[in-house]
């Protein structure tokens, strides 16, 4: 059964991944969970898979492959870490039977109490969505692959990395 992850709250709609989608691997997703990438990079993992396209000036907009639900709610690519409505829409777009991908594929048991910050829980949501998207497309999660330059874990997990938008 073919399934795609891409609809906002409500039924999932097929989404064609843009060619610019960064390749996913276990190693990369673990780096995202460990807060070793910028929030912007996390967004750029998701946006092309939702059908958003860069315009060359750093702005990503809904493209022809973006589902109507996402296009109407978020004509510009949503900041899935910084903005709660975007994170909620991402969570709701994961089919119920794929919501446990973090545990099943990565063995992720969650953050400890001292690590529970909105930025980090939204990162977990993003990784779970990416895993569900891979599963829905019938693609395997490679153990390793290309990595961006990894950042040090931010000293202030609430503020994040330099350049990360404030979480609302």
In brief, what are we looking at here?
The protein is mainly α.
Keywords:
2 strands; two-stranded antiparallel ribbon; mainly alpha; disordered N terminus; 33% helix; Actin-binding Protein, T-fimbrin, domain 1; 168 residues
Question: How are the SSEs placed, and which strands pair?
Answer:
Layout: H1 26-33, H2 39-46, E1 52-54, E2 60-62, H3 68-73, H4 84-92, H5 101-106, H6 118-136
Antiparallel strand pairs: 1-2
Helix pairs in contact: 2-6
Description:
The protein has six helices and two strands; from the N terminus they run H-H-E-E-H-H-H-H. The protein is mainly α and 168 residues long. It has a domain of 83 residues: Protein of unknown function DUF1823 (Actin-binding Protein, T-fimbrin, domain 1, Orthogonal Bundle), CATH 1.10.418. The protein has a two-stranded antiparallel sheet with strand order 1-2. Helix 2 runs parallel beside helix 6. It is globular.
| Helix/strand/pairing category | mainly alpha
Subunit arrangement of the protein: single chain
Strand order of the largest sheet: 1-2
Largest sheet: number of strands, sense, barrel closure: 2 strands, antiparallel
Residue stretches low in confidence (pLDDT < 50, at least 5 long) are: 1-19
Content of β-strand: under 5%
What is the helix tally?
Answer: 6
Mean pLDDT: 88
CATH class of the domain at 26-50 and 79-136: Mainly Alpha
Output the radius of gyration.
15 Å
Q: Which superfamily, in CATH terms, is the homologous superfamily of the domain at 26-50 and 79-136? A: Protein of unknown function DUF1823
* Secondary-structure element pattern, one letter each: HHEEHHHH
How many beta-strand segments? 2
Assign the CATH architecture of the domain at 26-50 and 79-136.
Orthogonal Bundle
């Amino acid at each position: 059964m073919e399934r795609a992850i891409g609809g906002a709250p409500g039924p999932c709609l097929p989404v064609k991944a843009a060619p610019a989608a960064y390749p996913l691997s276990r190693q990369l997703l673990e780096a995202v969970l460990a807060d070793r990438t910028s929030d912007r990079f996390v967004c750029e993992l998701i946006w092309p898979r939702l059908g958003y396209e860069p315009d060359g000036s750093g702005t990503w907009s809904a493209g022809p492959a973006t589902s109507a639900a996402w296009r109407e709610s978020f004509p510009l690519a949503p900041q899935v870490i910084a903005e709660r409505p975007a994170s909620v829409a991402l969570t709701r777009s994961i089919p119920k039977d794929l919501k446990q991908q973090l545990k099943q594929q990565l063995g992720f048991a969650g953050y400890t109490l001292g690590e529970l910050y909105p930025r980090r829980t939204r990162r977990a949501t993003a990784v779970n969505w990416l895993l569900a998207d891979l599963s829905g497309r019938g693609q395997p999660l490679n153990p390793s692959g290309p990595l961006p330059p990894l950042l040090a874990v931010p000293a202030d997990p609430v503020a994040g990395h330099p350049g990360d938008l404030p979480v609302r």
